[in-house]
UniProtKB/TrEMBL annotation:
Organism in which the protein naturally occurs: Deinococcus radiodurans (strain ATCC 13939 / DSM 20539 / JCM 16871 / CCUG 27074 / LMG 4051 / NBRC 15346 / NCIMB 9279 / VKM B-1422 / R1)
Residues annotated as domain LD-carboxypeptidase C-terminal: 125-246
All residue ranges annotated as the LD-carboxypeptidase N-terminal domain in the record: 2-52
Family affiliation: Belongs to the peptidase S66 family.
Key words of the record: Hydrolase
Protein name according to UniProt: MccF protein, putative
SUPFAM superfamilies attached to this UniProt entry: Class I glutamine amidotransferase-like, LD-carboxypeptidase A C-terminal domain-like
InterPro entries from the UniProt entry: Carboxypeptidase_A_C_sf, Class_I_gatase-like, LdcA_N, Peptidase_S66_N, Peptidase_S66C, S66_fam
A GO MF term: carboxypeptidase activity
Length: 257
């Protein structure tokens, strides 16, 4: 199953999603953004879910699916360990899905800018959890929220949407997780390239992340930012529930699907 596109109302599905049914009839579900709601319910049911491209945003890419996106899907659905890698190019340009003539015109991409390791001197390893930060916050206090114990030992992956939450707002959400005791239990943190951020906003985001982690006593936590997943193209597919290892010294992120 693949999400067609995101939105803002998947939370209305919560009364209709049966964890026992998901567990008894597991399917592979791929999506991101608002689909974080469904991804979390799969994880609560003990079924691996895939934070990755939707149909209209990357799979139906004008000019054909990007090789980086294709490779990320193939790796995530494979059986061998693999290293994540930075995209060679990226874009935030939109696509005109109604213009048939434009379907063969490739979007304009810019050279890849690599990852940024924010902190950490030792590797961290754990099961991968996360999604769109706005949707995870929307789930807070609802039956769809991941219980704190599922975060114990996890590597958290967070991405921001085209709503462009401010760096301070992201910091406030991180403080919320610190108040719940989540940050204190993590093994690592993956931050996506923030959608529509200026360089100044990105710098402020990194200040906030380090500030909140220091407040939580987690200056040791390995953190890598500007990773190619979420609201960016091309994007990686993250197999949520799989094991992942962050090695800040080697600059490697290894996944065991």
């Amino acid at each position: 199953m693949v999400s067609v596109i995101g939105g803002d109302d998947s939370i209305r599905l919560l009364p209709l999603l049966d964890a026992d049914l998901i567990r008894a009839h597991p399917k592979a579900f791929v999506g991101y953004s608002d689909s974080t709601v469904t991804l979390m319910q799969f994880l609560k049911a003990g079924v691996m879910a895939y934070h990755g491209p939707a149909v209209l945003t990357d799979l139906a890419e004008n000019g054909g699916i990007h090789p980086f996106t294709r490779r990320g899907l193939e790796q995530a659905f494979g059986t061998e360990p693999y290293d994540l890698s930075p995209a060679p190019e990226w874009t935030e340009a939109g696509q005109d899905w109604e213009d048939v003539a434009a379907q063969e015109i490739r979007r304009e991409f810019q050279p890849g800018d690599g990852w940024t390791w924010l902190q950490g001197d030792a590797p961290g390893e754990g099961h991968l959890l996360g999604g769109c930060v706005e949707i995870l916050d929307m789930l807070s206090g609802t039956p769809g929220e991941l219980p704190p114990e599922l975060w114990h030992g996890a590597v958290m992956a967070l991405e921001t949407s085209e709503d462009v939450p401010s760096p301070a707002q992201v910091g406030y959400w991180l403080r919320n997780w610190a108040a719940k005791g989540v940050l204190q239990r993590l093994s690592g943190l993956l931050l996506a390239r923030p959608r529509d951020y200026t360089p100044e906003m990105t710098a402020q985001l990194y200040v906030w992340v380090r500030r909140v982690l220091k407040e939580a006593g987690r200056e040791d936590l390995p953190v890598v930012a500007n990773v190619d997943f979420g609201h960016t193209s091309p994007q990686l597919t993250l197999p949520l529930g799989a094991q992942v290892r962050l090695d800040p010294v080697a600059g490697r992120v290894t996944v065991w699907p």
